[in-house]
């Protein structure tokens, strides 16, 4: 029988090797294959237990299989899945109200991923500038080491050449400045700039928080030149910093904000939030998406927002952050040959490796995994931690024990 028609295809054994045989090799996943998870606990095919301090790269902020989210998804799955964009639906209207009431924004556009949200934000900025000032106002300013998505437009805006090599020619009129460099910002942002896009905390670029003075200068320069300020909060948003969105902690308001990752706790959903004035530039038919804002995604996202956007919940994130920072700083003090600086915000934290370990953050990640702790890297010199926001003090302490064992194994 043709294997493609074999009914056992849904149940036959698969392994990590199957990835190498049938999937396009855009990733190099770990050797273990996760099969089940709950909260911050995860088990692989062999039944080995792991403590997950990655949250799927800051996605499962409420933990794996959170019962509140499971209930919301299940209820909607038995009600209404999808409609064409000739129709709206109740869940997406409620989600739009919840996000605009909780932020500076008046309007929301829903899509499926952070890249799509940033694509929409950049298109909106260009469309607005062309309509208000003319086609000459089209240049986009971003930062080196930023990450804004994998579409050709967003990967070009991201300031990492390793992600654009081989995809040329790239979209024009995109320039990059050093992150946290006020002088560079002043030199680059002129009257021909339509948009400045920035992560309040660079995630993939090394868990590097933006200086308040730098972000404020971007705000002032955009006000002066008529450019649109876009905050990419795909990774820093949805409670990750101890505020619903990082901009609220800085007290600096963008014109457009993008959200994804934790917004759906693992269900694909993203949002672009903006003002009435800017939203008017995207009229009927000017932009769209097939799945964006479908009832399933909107129901899940609304449940996530309702859980996270509570003062007590956000206060606990800040409390857990302080405990995590103290833990990591203690480890850096005890293992100075391997670890150095701790940086980040909330529960998006990074530890820079010591000089002798430059380029070897992956080795630390693998050593932690061997001990049963899942962590992330942010480039080759930073170990990144993004546990679920519901992490307990006991789980933080356990992560410390597992990390210590991993560092002992490396030191030996």
Automatic annotation (TrEMBL):
Where does the UniProt annotation locate this protein? Cytoplasm
Per the annotation, how and in what number is the cofactor bound?
Binds 1 pyridoxal phosphate per subunit.
Q: According to the UniProt record, list the residues that bear N6-(pyridoxal phosphate)lysine.
A: 261
Q: Which GO terms describe its cellular component?
A: cytoplasm
What's a single GO BP term from this record? L-arginine biosynthetic process
What Gene3D superfamilies has UniProt attached to this entry?
Aspartate Aminotransferase, domain 1, Type I PLP-dependent aspartate aminotransferase-like (Major domain)
The record's note on quaternary structure and interaction partners says: Homodimer.
Q: What is this protein called?
A: Acetylornithine aminotransferase
Species this chain originates from: Pseudoduganella aquatica
The lineage, from the top, is: Bacteria, Pseudomonadati, Pseudomonadota, Betaproteobacteria, Burkholderiales
């Amino acid at each position: 029988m043709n294997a493609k028609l074999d009914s056992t295809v849904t149940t036959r054994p698969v392994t990590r090797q199957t990835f190498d045989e049938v999937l396009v090799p855009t990733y190099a996943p770990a050797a273990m294959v996760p099969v089940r998870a709950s909260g911050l606990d995860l088990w692989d095919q062999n039944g080995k237990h792991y403590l997950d301090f990655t949250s799927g790269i800051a996605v499962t902020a409420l933990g794996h299989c959170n019962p509140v989210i499971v209930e919301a998804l299940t209820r909607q799955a038995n009600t209404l899945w999808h409609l064409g964009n000739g129709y709206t639906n109740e869940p997406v209207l409620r989600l739009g109200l919840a996000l605009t009431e909780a932020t500076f924004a008046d309007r929301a556009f829903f899509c499926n991923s952070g890249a799509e949200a940033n694509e929409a934000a950049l298109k909106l900025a260009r469309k607005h500038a062309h309509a208000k000032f003319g086609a000459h106002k089209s240049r986009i300013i971003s930062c080196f080491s930023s990450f804004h998505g994998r579409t050709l437009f967003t990967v070009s805006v991201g300031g990492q050449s390793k992600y654009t090599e081989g995809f040329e020619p790239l979209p024009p009129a995109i320039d990059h400045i050093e992150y946290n460099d006020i002088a560079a910002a002043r030199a680059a942002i002129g009257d021909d700039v339509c948009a400045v896009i920035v992560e309040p905390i660079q995630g993939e670029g090394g868990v590097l928080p933006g200086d308040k003075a730098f972000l404020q200068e971007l705000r002032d320069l955009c006000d002066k030149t008529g450019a649109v300020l876009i905050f990419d909060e795909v990774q820093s948003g949805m409670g990750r910093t101890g505020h619903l969105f990082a901009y609220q902690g800085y007290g600096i308001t963008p014109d457009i904000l993008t959200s994804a990752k934790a917004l759906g706790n693992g269900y694909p959903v993203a949002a672009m939030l903006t003002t009435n004035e800017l939203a008017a530039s995207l009229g009927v038919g000017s932009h769209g998406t097939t799945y964006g804002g479908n009832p399933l995604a909107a129901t899940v996202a609304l449940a996530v927002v309702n859980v996270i956007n509570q003062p007590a919940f956000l206060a606990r994130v800040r409390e857990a952050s302080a405990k995590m920072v103290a833990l990591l700083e203690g480890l850096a003090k005890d293992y100075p040959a391997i670890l150095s600086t701790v940086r980040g915000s909330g529960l998006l934290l990074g530890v820079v490796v010591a000089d002798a370990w430059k380029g070897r953050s992956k080795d630390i990640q693998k050593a932690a995994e061997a001990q049963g702790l899942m962590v992330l890297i942010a480039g080759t010199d930073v170990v990144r931690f993004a546990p679920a926001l519901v992490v307990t003090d006991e789980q933080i302490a356990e992560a410390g024990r597992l990390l210590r064992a991993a560092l002992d194994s490396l030191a030996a």
